[in-house]
Amino acid sequence: MYKYIKQLTSLFAVIAVLFAFAGEAMAAKKSKTLKNTQKKGFVRCGVSQGVPGFSNADASGNWTGVDVDVCRAVAAAVLGDAGKVKFTPLSAKERFTALTSGEIDILSRNTTWTLSRDADIGLTFVGVNFYDGQGFMVRKDSGITSTSQFKSGLSACVNIGTTTELNMRDFFTSKGISYEPVVFEKADEVVAAYDSGRCDTYTTDKSGLAAQRTKMKDPDAHIVLPETISKEPLGPVVRQGDSVWEDIVRWSLNVMIEAEEYGITSANADAMKSSENPQIKRLVGAEGELGAAFGLDNDWSLRIIKQVGNYGESYKRNIADTGILPDRGPNQLWTKGGILYVPPAR
Amino acid sequence: MNIKNTTKGFTDFFKDNSKIRNYLPQILTLLFIVFLIGYFTYNAQVNMDNRGIDFGFHFWGQEASFDIQFSLIEYDGSHSYGRAYLVGLLNTILVAVIGIFFATILGIIIGVSRLSSNYLISRVAEWYIEIFRNIPLLLQLFFWYFAALRALPLPKEAINFFDVSFLSVKGLYIPKFIWTNFDIFIYSIIAAIISIIFVYNYARKKQEQTGTQTPKFLISLGIIIVLPLLTFLIGGVSLSFEYPILKQMSETIFNYVGGAKIIPELMALAAALSLYTATFIAECVRAGILGVSKGQKEAAGSLGLTTGQILRLVVMPQALRIIIPPTTNQYLNLTKNSSLAAAIAYPDIVLVFAGTAMMQTGRAIEIVSITMATYLTLSIAISILMNWYNKKIAIKEK
After folding, report:
1. What superfamily would CATH give domain B81-136+265-393?
2. Which of 182-201 (A) contact B at CB < 8 A?
3. Domain ranges of chain B
4. Is the ipTM, as predicted for this complex, more than 0.95?
5. What are the tens digits of pLDDT across the range A82-117?
6. B18 vs chain A: nearest CA distance in angstroms?
7. CA distance A252 to A244
8. Taking a C-beta distance cutoff of 8 angstroms, is the pair A182, A155 a contact?
């Protein structure tokens, strides 16, 4: 009898161990980055060193911008408070290393999604929060109104380590124009060199040109040429290998865009709980179990909308009202003639 | 009792085997270093595997697809990353050579002026040294670059040097040399240098044997002028110039085309590096001259040597022995400091290779290691060269 009990106990022990392993395996599905973030109590977010409208710190160190709002949305979703974000300003050169080495968990720094970056260097792009394209800025008195007036011998100031450097070459080479690239490490030096006449044109993403123009001594003395020479889908990036974290960041952004589509704003989010539309109810957490898929509670999306707002609110607050790019252009919902189209959150 | 015995045996073992006693700590240290390097390599490998980054140099031959502002060899974006590396390396060497050249000349002048008996000259030299060596180099670099950019005129109002050279905010435009049969000209220069070495050897031997001096300087000057000149007259060598011409590109944008161009980034960087390093070299020179005892000069004077001869034959050979080792350090510093170029858009190896190329390929570890190895090689090369020179001028005990 005693022998049987002993065997039975050991059997239970084995089963218990197996369950423990299974439990461990289940827990492993829960993201390592998420676990670390919840343990630390803040989201570690890499941003730019100051691009108005995207990520810019004011005198008292408060960060604002559409890129900043992506990180705030993730913080609202996983920690319940959009303020719990630690921002790390990074140069274009440092940004990928900071992410792959684990210094930050989200890179939201007007970064262009390209094949080689996505596939080659341990990064995963989760979506697009701003559709941009590269343009040129020239002095108004130069009389140049279109890139077709560019002639060989032109000098162009540009920031290092960006897709801009490559697009510029493609553009000038295809037009058969010889040019002189003057490459700086920091945006401030690019602007200073362009301002002093060292370069005839300054080229970067059009949103960047619009933002830097506001910083110049005499913004009205410069114009951005109408041509767009490249596609620059800018979006947040995460480390490769943590698919749950990747999903959390992707859907935090998607929820902001979809909330705008369904007319849910930070002001009416609570009232929308009693909406008739099941999709709206799902977005504000009154129906369905969307959060459980990432190991979050059901109010995660409601918190994003209430604390950060929908995409349209974020755009208006950061880019339109600051006079950088009042016209939303392609960054309008697909239902209103833009190309913002996200998969349904259901 | 037993334990004591073993312990004694253990120490005895070392006392009796002095070889083992000497080598064991060294072997342990070596093992420790090998282990440490191995651990770091392994650690990097595991972490890179976890993050899905592979290690490799296959990017080296791929198309770089970015352009470089200033290059000593033919380059455009269709060349490989390897070629871009070479462009960056040559630009680094160029600015280091220019910097070392001017820093040495300026350093010697300032160092000697510092010892001048003229109150004004020695004070000016002192102030120069104190100001320039106590301001961080990066700030000086920004100062020269942005001050120059602000002060220089646009190409349309460029400062004109005899209608052949023009200085503007976009750079210094100079005539381009167009040679025919350039190789013959180079051979003639090499031949001239070899003949001068022969003349010097002959003159030294003659002086050692007979005591008569040969006007070797005049003879060498003649050789170096006459031989290359002959190639122009009978060797078929000729030289013509291509002058820069102002071209209008739009209503207000002008630029020079043709000729050769020295970019303002190179000028600012070379100026900042030379002015900064010259202060340290000046102090080395002063230390060297002060290090030669006064008695040497007085003894030489009493033998009837002129002031010039005293400086050239007695003071300088001894001073150089004190000057060379610390000056080598300054040359190394200057070369390494040239990496600040990245801040002002001079396309050196850091900007081109550890900058653009690194970001376009994402191969941080590979590219940073190559860049570090490159600087290490450059520094060691300079050290070897300077040590050879130092040995050459050292006291030869016969």
Report:
1. MetI-like (1.10.3720.10)
2. 182-185, 189, 192-193, 196-198, 200
3. 2-50, 81-136+265-393
4. no
5. 999 999 999 887 888 899 888 999 999 989 998 888
6. 48
7. 12
8. yes
